[in-house]
Specification:
3-stranded antiparallel beta sheet; globular; alpha+beta
Length: 224
């Protein structure tokens, strides 16, 4: 069963978490991910019936619906927030999916924002047409800290449908790992108040080196 689309980002101002700086040095809209020269890692959560065969075989099984939208997330902690540390029903198996940067950037170039932005889209009707035909869509939701509280900067959620979903499953995927044990280990440390130890176990997510113009269609002119 696919992870359902993430909830829309709230329109009200986000209050920083109690131990977060009031003014984050991180740009509000920035892709942060584990990446190499050729790949980028994204996360998804599935039922064991889907997740375990995917991790075992390194590819998505036939039961993975290629005709439905699927959401990928470069942020480990946002995935933890979305699946409740792998405790939500239907999201018990957390996967780290390594895909080609070529595929990832193809999706970004062909994506449409999931909401209308004045100044980026000429008119709501134009945005609606783009959204209808785009094989990918982007949502920016508040990033999360170790206690899954919202932070001032945003995390990329990338929805793939149609051609993008099929290419993701059958062409872009390089490797799939089951990271559920790591998710549970970090959750246990956070629950016990050992956040310094938990932080050391987090994947090292660095700013993604987006080429000039790559994010123009999915960020807009008013972001900082």
């Amino acid at each position: 069963m696919h992870v359902s689309p993430p909830p829309s980002a709230p329109q009200a101002p986000i209050e920083p978490a109690p131990d977060s700086p009031a003014l984050s040095p991180i740009p509000k809209h920035q892709i942060r991910a584990v990446h190499t020269d050729t790949t980028v890692t994204v996360y998804q959560a599935y039922t064991p019936a889907i997740g375990l065969p995917a991790a075992r075989d390194g590819r998505f099984p036939a039961a993975w619906k290629r005709d439905r939208m699927t959401w990928i997330k470069p942020s480990f902690l946002w995935m933890a927030y979305r699946c409740g540390w792998g405790l939500k029903e239907g999201q018990e198996t957390v996967l780290a999916v390594e895909i080609t940067r070529e595929g990832f950037e193809w999706a970004l170039r062909n994506a449409c924002l999931s909401h209308y932005v004045r100044g980026l889209h000429p008119a709501p009707a134009t945005w609606q047409r783009e959204l209808k035909w785009a094989p990918a869509r982007v949502q920016w939701d508040p990033e999360r800290d170790l206690r899954l509280r919202p932070l001032p900067h945003r995390s990329l959620q990338l929805g793939l449908a149609g051609e993008a979903a099929r290419r993701y499953a059958d062409e872009w995927t390089v490797a799939i790992r089951d990271v559920t044990p790591l998710v549970h280990q970090i959750h246990g440390l956070v629950r016990d108040g050992r956040t310094d130890e938990a932080a050391r176990l987090l994947p090292e997510e660095r700013p993604y080196p987006a080429e000039d113009g790559l994010l123009d269609r999915i960020v807009g002119p008013t972001t900082g």
